[in-house]
C-alpha cells in the first residue's frame, strides 16, 4: 500500500523533469556581520549572476524609507544548491535585505531579522498577565533597543515595550498585568532594520492567573505524624495529603525525620512542603525488593523544601506514569534534595551486582531506575540537588518543561535523558558523573513514542566527570525512521510515497520529511496528521519535488539552542548524532572532551544533519583519551567537526554548516568528513574567522573537489602570543 502525503487536494502523475524555474531560497545562514560570509541553500542557485544587498534603516515604525547602504556583489562561490557572498566589511551590523538576480528571475531574503521559535511562561506554565514571558529563536537582540509587540488575533496592537533582556537567542519580557486571558500574537524587533524587520508573529496563549487568596495550610502533625525517624508516619502523611488535595491546601512537614515503610502516593492537587531541606526529610528503610517508585503521582502535584533519603530503590520520584492514566503534567519539584544509594552499608558483592542489574534492566526509563522520572505538560524541577544510585533524571514526551538551577549526579551506570520533549528550558544546572561507572546523557528521541524532540534551550549548564559507556555529555540519539525512497504522485500539496510508511514505535505525527537529493533537495516539512493512509504536512514546498526526488522520513530533532555551557572530562561535549536540523552551538567551552560535532549518518535509517551553526565556542584542552563518538578514539585531538558518514548507497546527508569565531587553543582542529569524491556526503560549509592552535593542519578533510565549501580567514595562532595565551 502506498502512503499519501497531503497538503491540499488532487493527484497527478509526477513528471520526470521539472519545468523551467528560477533561483529559490530554502535557508540562509544568520546571524551575519560585516566581513562575514553568508551561505544560501536553495534551488537553481548557479543561475544567479549577482547579489543585490541593502542595509535597512533603523526605523521600526516605517518601511520603504530607503536603505542606509546598498551595493551589488558577485557570488564568491556557487553551485546549483549553494551560493556564498560576504557582507561588506565597511558596513555596520544590521538587518540586510538581499536579492539573488538571474537572467530572467530573482529570489530575495532578509538576514538578521528576528526568527521566533517558541515562547514559554514561568516554571513550565502558560504565560500569565503580569508575569515574565521567555522568547527563543535567532537574532532576537542586536542592540539594547530591542522591542516586543503584542497583538490580538485579529491584528489589533495592544502593547509595545522595550526588551531589556534580549540576546541573539533569547529575550525576556514582562507582560502587562491588565492583559486579558486569551490568544495573542507576539513579535520582536531586534533594534535594527525598518518596520519590515519585525519578526513574523508567534501565537501565544495567555491564561488567567491563579485566584488570589490566603494559602491554606495543614500540618502532618495534625494527622499523627511523629517525625522522630523511628515511628512509621506513612498512614499519617497519606491522610494529610488526601485532606490537602480535597481542600486545596498545602501539607506542611515541620522539622523532623519522617519514616515511611512503603511507597507514598501524592494525589492530584496536593503540595507536600517541608520547612527547609536541611530540616524536613522523608526516609525509607532498606527494602529487599523496593517498590517501583518511592513517591508517585499522576498530575497537579508539588514537592518542596525537603530531603528524601533511601537505600535500595528504583525510581525515587515518579510523576505521570500511573498505569491506565493519560499523563496531564503540572508537576513541580522545588528546592528538594535526594540522597538515594542502593549500595549503602556492608552489603555482599552478589547483592551489589544484583541491585545494579535491577536498576539497569527495569521498566520505565533509562536503566530502569531514575531519581526523578516525569511525564506530562507543564513540568518544573528547580533549585534541587539530586544524587541517586543510577540515572538522575528522566523526562519523557513532555511539553513546557523548565529544569533550572539543579545539580544532577548520575550514579553507577547512570545517565540523564530528556526524550521526545518540546519547548524545554534546561538552564543553569550541573550534570555530574558521581561514580566512575557513570555516563553522560542527552536530549533525544530514544525512549519517546512521539515523533520529535524540538525547541530546546540548553544554556549555562556544567557537564563534567562522565567516564563510562559512550561518555557523551550531550547527544541527540534517536535511531530509526519511517520511510526512505521516492514520490510517485504529486498535485498541489499532495504526495504519494512509493511504499509504506512504517513508523515503528514512534508516532508519525511531527516526524520530519526531508528531500535529500533531486529536485527540491534541502527542504523539509513535518507530518501533522495521518488518516486512512493520507499524511498531511505542515507547510508548502518552495520547490515541488518530482519522482526523481529522494526523501527520508525520520523522527524530527530540531531547533536546539546550545549556548554558554561548560563541558569537561567527557567522551564528547555536544554530539548531534543523526537527525539534527537548525541547531545552534554557541559560546560553549570544552576541556578533555572530543569537542563539538554533527553527523549525518545511517542510524538504522538515513538521517540528515542540516543547518548547523558553531559560533564562538572554545576548546581549552582538546586531549582525547578513549572518547569521541561511540568511544572510538583511543588517543587524539578534539574537533569542531561536521561529517557525512558513508554507508552503502548513501545520499548526501550533511548540509549547510557554519563554523565561525571558534577558538581551539590546545590539541584541537576543525574537521570535515565526507566532503569530496564523486558523490560527496557533506555539502555547503562556511569555515571562517576561527583561531586554531594545533600541531597538525588547522582544518582537516577538505579536498580540492570538496563541494560548495568556502574557507577563508582561519588562523593558526602562536601559543606564546598574547592572542594564543587568552
Description:
The structure is a single chain. β44 and β45 form a beta hairpin. The longest helix is centred in the N-terminal third of the chain and has 14 residues, at 234-247. The chain is built from two helices and 68 strands. 54% of the residues are buried. It has a domain at 115-206: Immunoglobulins (Immunoglobulin-like). The protein is globular and about 85 Å long. Strands 18-20-23-26-29-32-35-38-41-50-53-57-61-64-67 form a 15-stranded parallel sheet, with helices on one face. With 726 residues, the chain is mainly beta.
Properties at a glance:
single chain; 726 residues; mainly beta; Immunoglobulin-like; 15-stranded parallel sheet; 2 helices; globular; disordered C terminus
CATH architecture descriptor text of the domain at 115-206: Sandwich
* Poorly predicted sequence stretches spanning 5 or more consecutive residues: 4-19, 719-726
Shape, principal axes of CA atoms? globular
Structural class by SSE content: mainly beta
Q: In the CATH hierarchy, what is the superfamily of the domain at 115-206?
A: Immunoglobulins
- The counted number of beta strands is 68
**Strand order in the largest sheet:** 18-20-23-26-29-32-35-38-41-50-53-57-61-64-67
Main β sheet profile: 15 strands, parallel
N- and C-termini, Cα separation: 62 Å
Helix fraction?
under 10%
Q: What's the helix count?
A: 2
Amino acid at each position: 500500500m502506498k502512503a499519501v502525503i497531503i497538503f491540499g487536494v488532487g493527484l497527478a502523475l509526477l513528471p520526470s523533469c521539472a519545468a523551467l524555474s528560477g533561483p529559490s531560497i530554502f535557508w540562509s545562514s544568520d546571524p551575519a556581520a560585516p566581513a562575514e560570509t553568508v551561505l544560501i541553500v536553495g534551488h537553481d542557485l548557479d543561475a544567479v549572476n549577482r547579489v543585490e544587498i541593502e542595509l535597512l534603516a533603523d526605523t521600526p515604525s516605517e518601511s520603504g524609507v530607503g536603505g542606509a547602504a546598498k551595493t551589488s556583489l558577485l557570488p564568491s562561490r556557487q553551485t546549483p544548491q549553494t551560493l556564498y557572498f560576504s557582507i561588506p566589511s565597511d558596513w555596520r551590523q544590521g538587518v540586510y535585505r538581499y536579492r539573488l538576480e538571474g537572467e530572467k528571475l530573482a529570489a530575495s531574503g532578509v538576514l538578521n531579522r528576528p526568527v521566533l521559535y517558541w515562547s514559554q511562561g514561568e516554571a513550565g506554565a502558560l504565560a500569565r498577565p503580569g508575569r515574565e514571558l521567555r522568547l527563543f529563536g535567532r537574532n532576537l537582540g542586536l542592540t539594547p533597543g530591542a522591542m516586543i509587540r503584542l497583538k490580538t488575533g485579529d491584528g489589533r496592537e495592544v502593547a509595545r515595550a522595550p526588551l531589556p533582556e534580549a540576546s541573539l537567542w533569547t529575550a525576556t519580557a514582562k507582560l502587562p498585568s491588565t492583559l486579558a486571558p486569551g490568544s495573542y500574537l507576539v513579535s520582536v524587533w531586534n533594534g535594527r532594520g525598518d518596520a519590515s524587520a519585525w519578526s513574523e508573529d508567534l501565537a501565544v496563549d495567555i491564561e488567567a492567573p491563579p485566584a488570589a487568596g490566603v494559602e491554606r495550610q495543614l500540618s502532618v502533625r495534625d494527622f499523627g505524624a511523629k517525625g522522630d525517624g523511628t515511628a512509621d508516619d506513612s498512614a499519617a502523611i497519606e491522610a494529610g495529603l488526601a485532606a490537602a488535595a480535597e481542600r486545596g491546601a498545602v501539607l506542611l512537614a515541620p522539622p523532623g525525620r519522617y519514616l515511611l515503610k512503603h511507597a507514598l502516593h501524592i494525589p492530584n492537587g496536593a503540595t507536600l512542603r517541608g520547612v527547609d531541606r536541611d530540616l524536613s526529610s522523608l526516609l525509607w528503610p532498606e527494602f529487599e525488593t523496593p517498590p517501583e517508585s518511592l513517591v508517585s503521582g499522576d498530575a497537579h502535584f508539588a514537592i518542596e523544601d525537603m530531603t528524601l533519603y533511601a537505600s535500595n530503590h528504583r525510581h525515587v520520584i515518579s510523576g505521570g506514569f500511573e498505569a491506565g492514566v493519560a499523563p496531564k503534567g503540572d508537576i513541580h519539584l522545588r528546592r528538594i534534595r535526594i540522597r538515594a544509594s542502593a549500595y549503602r552499608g556492608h552489603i555482599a558483592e552478589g547483592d551489589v551486582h544484583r541491585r545494579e542489574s535491577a536498576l539497569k534492566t527495569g521498566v520505565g526509563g533509562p536503566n530502569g531506575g531514575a531519581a526523578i522520572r516525569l511525564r506530562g505538560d507543564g513540568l518544573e524541577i528547580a533549585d534541587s540537588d539530586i544524587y541517586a544510585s543510577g540515572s538522575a533524571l528522566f523526562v519523557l514526551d513532555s511539553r513546557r518543561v523548565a529544569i533550572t538551577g539543579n545539580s544532577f549526579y548520575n550514579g553507577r551506570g547512570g545517565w540523564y535523558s530528556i526524550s521526545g520533549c518540546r519547548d524545554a528550558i534546561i538552564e543553569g544546572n550541573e550534570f555530574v558523573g558521581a561514580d566512575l561507572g557513570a555516563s553522560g546523557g542527552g536530549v533525544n528521541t530514544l525512549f519517546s513514542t512521539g515523533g520529535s524532540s524540538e525547541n530546546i534551550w540548553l544554556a549555562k549548564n556544567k557537564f563534567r566527570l562522565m567516564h563510562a559507556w559512550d561518555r557523551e555529555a550531550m547527544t541527540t540519539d534517536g535511531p530509526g525512521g519511517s520511510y526512505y525512497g521516492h514520490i510517485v504522485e504529486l498535485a498541489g500539496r499532495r504526495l504519494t510515497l512509493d511504499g509504506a510508511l512504517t513508523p515503528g514505535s514512534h508516532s508519525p505525527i511531527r516526524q520530519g520529511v526531508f528531500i535529500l537529493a533531486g529536485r527540491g533537495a534541502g527542504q523539509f516539512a513535518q507530518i501533522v496528521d495521518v488518516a486512512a493512509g493520507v499524511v498531511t504536512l505542515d507547510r508548502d514546498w518552495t520547490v515541488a519535488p518530482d519522482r526523481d526526488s529522494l526523501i527520508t522520513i525520520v523522527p524530527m530533532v530540531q531547533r536546539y539552542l546550545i549556548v554558554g555551557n561548560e563541558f569537561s572530562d567527557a567522551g564528547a561535549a555536544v554530539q548531534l548524532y543523526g537527525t539534527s536540523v537548525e541547531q545552534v552551538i554557541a559560546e560553549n567551552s570544552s576541556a578533555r572532551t572530543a569537542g563539538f560535532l554533527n553527523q549525518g549518518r545511517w542510524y538504522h535509517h538515513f538521517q540528515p544533519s542540516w543547518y548547523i551553526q558553531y559560533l564562538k565556542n572554545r576548546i581549552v584542552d582538546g586531549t582525547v583519551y578513549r572518547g569521541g563518538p561511540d568511544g572510538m578514539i583511543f588517543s587524539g585531538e578534539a574537533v569542531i567537526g561536521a561529517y557525512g558518514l558513508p554507508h552503502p548507497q548513501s545520499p548526501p546527508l550533511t548540509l549547510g554548516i557554519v563554523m565561525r569565531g571558534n577558538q581551539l587553543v590546545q590539541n584541537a582542529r576543525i574537521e570535515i568528513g565526507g566532503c569530496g569524491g564523486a558523490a560527496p556526503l557533506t555539502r555547503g560549509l562556511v569555515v571562517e574567522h576561527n583561531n586554531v592552535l594545533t600541531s597538525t593542519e588547522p582544518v582537516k578533510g577538505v579536498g580540492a573537489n570538496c563541494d560548495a565549501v568556502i574557507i577563508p580567514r582561519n588562523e593558526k595562532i602562536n601559543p606564546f602570543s598574547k592572542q594564543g595565551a587568552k
